[in-house]
Amino acid sequence: MPVSMPVNTLKGNWQRLAKNDRLKRSSQIVSVIDGQVCIFGGEVQPREPVDDKVDVVSLDADSPNHTTKNSNQAPSPRVGTASAVIQDALYIFSGRGGVDMAPVEEKGAVWSYSPTKDSWTKLEPADTSAPFPPARSYHTSTSDGASTFYVHAGCPANGRLSDLWAFDVTQRSWTQLPEAPAPHRGGASIAFSDGKLYRMNGFDGKTEVGGSIDVFDTSSSTWSTKTFQADGNDGPEARSVCALLPVQLGRKKKLLTLFGERDPSSLGHAGAGKMLGDVWIYDISEEWWTRLSPNSGDDGAPANRGWFDADVVKGSGMGNDSVIVHGGLSEDNSRLDDVWMLKF
Which of 153, 303, 281, 304 is nearest to 216 (CA)? Predict the structure, then answer.
């Protein structure tokens, strides 16, 4: 098997940045913007969204601090939404909330949050007669970092989806793109790298999906599929409610996936299944997986979890990226209250 860079640079080191009761939650979103980890939404008690505040953890290496922002005109409290960062703001679409915990229907509106201004903006479609994605929860999102916010799959009021939509945040317009390969799913993961979207994992209503990476080429608007052995040796096991992140390591662009739920709970969203605690890197150009064994820090390493969120801290220049992991659900069905950084 070809090795793209020395193994020791792939190992990684865990560092805990924060841990407190306010940060305890699952099914939330995490976005890193300008050295700040922004956390919104989620639940501590099943089917009870926490509130509409944004929690911010700084990435100051000497003394990371945590503050809670109570912004005006915030979106309604929700769980199971998904976020992505474009320039200096995060973007979210829909989620689940309200008394009935139904998908939050906002007629195609997208919310953006700027930590610099500590303010939310509701971006309603410019053409109210144009098609827009149906409301949903436990979908997945990513962006091209410039102007396009992608929304994929998830759970509407009934069933699951496999659709892909692109929202131009400047034009405030939705474009429906070709559907991803079957099966329809919730709890999938998607990442953007070099003009392509990479989709994997999820739960199809009966079992976790694994063993393939579906690739959407934004220039040709076509899907293709790469398969691998999802055996925990040659590639990561099937899972859902995990994370897939585009990272630069050793001057190469890669994908990183970690953690997630392997076997669903019989209680659905009210219970916890079998959680994973592994970390994998995928070499995009050479198309192979390698499992990492990060070093524990002074506070140990993150517990196995699913229903969490994660994002990337960009390295300077051609330096290695880092990964932020927050919260989620542990195997004992408790909500986790920690923020970790995986540094390379």
Answer: 153
d(CA 52, CA 78): 8
**Residues 45, 73 contacting (CB under 8 angstroms):** no
Nearest to 209 by CA among 156, 262, 272: 262
Distance CA 214, CA 285 (A): 15
HSE-CB at 199 with a 13 A cutoff on CA atoms is 33
Q: Which residue has the tokens 């919260």?
A: 327
Task: Give CA torsion, residues 337, 65, 281, 139, to 10 deg.
Answer: 60
Q: What strand order describes the sheet that includes 196-200?
A: 189-193, 196-200, 212-217, 222-227
**What type of residue is 151?**
V
User: What is residue 263's predicted lDDT score, i.e. its pLDDT?
Assistant: 85
φ and ψ of 4, to 5 deg: -85, -20
Is residue 108 exposed (0-12), middle (13-18) or buried (19+ Cβ within 10 Å)? buried
Mean pLDDT estimate for the chain? 94
Which tokens hold the place of 63?
A: 């003394």
Residue with tokens 């930590």: 115
Report the C-alpha gap between 42 and 27 in whole angstroms: 5
Asked if pLDDT for residue 187 goes beyond 80, the answer is yes
Q: What is the pLDDT of residues 46-60, one digit of tens each?
A: 999 999 999 999 998
Q: What is the pLDDT of residues 24-52, one digit of tens each?
A: 999 999 999 999 999 999 999 999 999 99
Q: pLDDT tens, 189-203?
A: 999 999 999 999 999
Q: What is the DSSP string of 118-186?
A: TEEEEE--SSTTS--PPP-BS-EEEE-SSSEEEEEEEB-SSS-EEEEEEEETTTTEEEEEPPPSSPPBB
